[in-house]
Specification:
about 240 residues, alpha/beta, 6-stranded mixed beta sheet, 11 strands, disordered C terminus
């Protein structure tokens, strides 16, 4: 995206935002609440439209594409709060991710892949999604997106409300998915974990990109450590 601007009525949510995710890359976006992170990821998923700027995926001009065709371009989102159909089974929720003809042709293989990534779901495929723990529901949400066989996976706050050990397991799986060649854009408030697994990072503040660069370099910057990691810039005895 280049020089993106997004508005809600008269209010501007994103100002002159430019960023990229290369093929097979894992990039994170961090920042405080209300910075515009969810708006940013929803723009890339087609859920919010841009007022100005350029939005492209490969050779496709996404700004001109109807929202329902973003998935066909290889983009899948795991929304904040999971958004499962809690009265439907896990299997049915996963199947919804492969509604496109090209993805439906590989539904069996995709389901096997999801079960290999999340073994805890194997015995729960025919249970209502609402009966699962929060961590297991997040596994279903990620699995549903993977059923679409995306080339770009968008993750909006996947650690929200989950126990620390579950979060670590989920982030390990995200790295595994990325290692298989799927590009990942991760929006996350757990800054330490996000910077630890990403190759590059952007800091979003008040709708603007405040900093960007290799994740390890951003994690080492004193102002980032103070503001987002709760670590003083000067070591104390």
């Amino acid at each position: 995206m280049r020089s993106i601007e997004v508005r809600y009525g008269a209010a501007t949510a994103l100002w002159d935002v430019s960023m990229r995710v290369d093929a097979g890359e894992l990039v994170c976006v961090v920042g405080p609440n209300g910075a515009g992170k969810t708006t940013l990821i929803n723009v890339i998923a087609g859920l919010n439209r841009i007022a100005s700027g350029t939005l492209r995926h490969g050779s496709c001009d996404l700004a001109r594409l109807p929202a329902h065709l973003f998935c066909a371009e290889g983009i899948a989102i795991v929304p904040e709060g999971r958004r499962l159909f809690t009265g439907m089974t896990v299997r049915e929720n996963l199947a919804l991710g492969s509604y496109r003809t090209s993805a439906k042709a590989h539904r069996r293989a995709s389901l096997d892949r999801v079960c290999a990534l999340f073994p805890a779901l194997v015995e729960k495929l025919d249970r209502p999604a609402g009966s699962l723990s929060g961590g297991q529901q997040q596994m279903v949400a990620i699995g549903r997106a993977l059923m679409a066989r995306p080339t770009l996976l968008l993750l909006d706050e996947p650690s929200l409300g989950l126990a620390p050990m579950i979060v670590i397991e989920l982030f390990q799986t995200i790295r595994e998915v990325n290692a298989e060649g799927v590009a990942v854009l991760l929006v996350e408030q757990n800054v330490a974990l996000a910077l630890a697994i990403a190759s590059r990072a952007y800091v979003l503040e008040e709708g603007r990109i405040a900093a960007e660069g290799p994740a390890a370099e951003l994690a080492a910057r004193p102002e980032i450590r103070r503001a987002y990691l709760g670590i003083d810039a000067v070591d104390r005895v």
